[in-house]
Design a protein that fits this description.
By secondary structure, this protein is an alpha+beta fold. It has two domains: 1-103; 110-282, L,D-transpeptidase catalytic domain-like, CATH 2.40.440.10. The protein is built from four helices and 20 strands. It has helices at residues 18-29, 31-103, 173-183, 264-273, and strands at residues 2-5, 11-14, 110-114, 119-124, 127-133, 136-137, 141-144, 147-150, 156-159, 162-165, 168-169, 186-189, 208-209, 212-215, 225-226, 232-235, 241-243, 254-256, 260-261, 279-282. The protein has a five-stranded mixed β-sheet with strand order 5-4-3-20-9, with no helix packed on it. Strand 16 (232-235) and strand 17 (241-243) form a beta hairpin. The longest helix is centred in the first third of the chain and has 73 residues, at 31-103. The radius of gyration is 47 Å and the shape is elongated.
Length: 283
């Protein structure tokens, strides 16, 4: 407390505490003081709010800039990778084209087979010496021994390695597996038995007994089928042939296990006119 003397000569006691000062100021200056305080408080509140808003906006702007920078960097990275892959693909295409130009003989006779068109051409330079429809791989699959085999005609460059009239077909194991699956029969594998183990069974037929298909021994008469490959065959690598067929209605379709089937007159023309070591291009 503080005091001073009034005009009447009596001491005036003054309250200097914050609340007392506020009361005294309000008593001396009235509503003007209150209005001034409200203005000050309002200004302070507005200043704080503005500062908070500005800080928040700056934060959001900085976050957006960071995100934009990050996205821009990722976009540049993706664009660079795409450009690199395009250049790599273009280089591969050019290499393949150059390789094809080097592989295709200009004057040497060669065979071209289109799997999509199911057609073959025997060519020399720009001249077509012969053309004929063909049957190609069916594209079907067979599960055998836990592995899946797809019956498709291979693409690429091959060579005629052997020619033969009235060829004998020696079926692979898959032929017997396929027969058993189609007929819902069991399968007995005797492929490693003695060649005469199935003596008494018809030659060139699939052995079936007691609800089971028997895979005959290699070298046995039961594993030699006549007529299946037609009048002739032209052999290529990996066991693929041009050959005739006993099912000529399939020529022009996708029906084989991968070999190229032809009509009788066409395969005989090929046998007579196409020499061994003739290049074959299948696409």
């Amino acid at each position: 407390m503080d005091s001073r003397t009034t005009r009447a000569g009596t001491p005036e006691r003054r309250n200097l505490a914050p609340l007392g000062r506020f009361r005294r100021i309000f008593r001396d200056h009235g509503w003007g003081t209150l209005l001034l305080l409200l203005v000050v408080i309002g200004s302070a509140t507005l200043f704080v709010s503005s500062a908070l808003w500005a800080t928040n906006e700056r934060f959001k702007r900085e976050v957006a800039e960071i995100a934009y920078t990050h996205d821009a960097e990722r976009l540049r990275f993706v664009e660079q990778r795409v450009a690199e892959r395009v250049r790599e693909d273009e280089a591969k295409v050019q290499a393949r084209e150059k390789e094809s130009e080097n592989l295709l003989p200009s004057n040497q006779a060669h065979i071209v087979v289109s799997i999509a068109e199911r057609q073959m051409w025997y060519l020399r330079g720009n001249d077509t010496l012969y053309t004929a429809p063909v049957a190609v791989g069916s594209g079907k699959t067979l599960v055998m021994g836990g592995k899946t085999q797809r019956f498709q005609t291979p693409r690429g460059r091959m060579t005629i390695t052997h020619k033969e009239l009235d060829p004998i077909w020696v079926p692979p194991d898959w032929h017997y597996v396929k027969t058993a699956q189609e007929r819902g029969l069991r399968l007995i594998n005797m492929s490693n038995a003695r060649p005469d183990a199935l003596a008494g069974f018809p030659e060139g037929k699939v052995p079936i007994r007691d609800g089971a298909v028997i895979i005959p021994p290699w070298g046995s008469p039961q594993r030699r089928h006549t007529g299946v490959l037609g009048a002739a065959k032209l052999e290529m690598q990996d066991g693929y042939y041009f050959h005739g067929t006993e099912k000529e209605e399939t020529v022009g379709t996708a029906a084989s296990a991968g070999c190229i089937r032809m009509l009788k007159e066409d395969i005989l023309w090929m046998y007579r006119n196409v020499p061994v070591r003739t290049p074959v291009y299948i696409y």
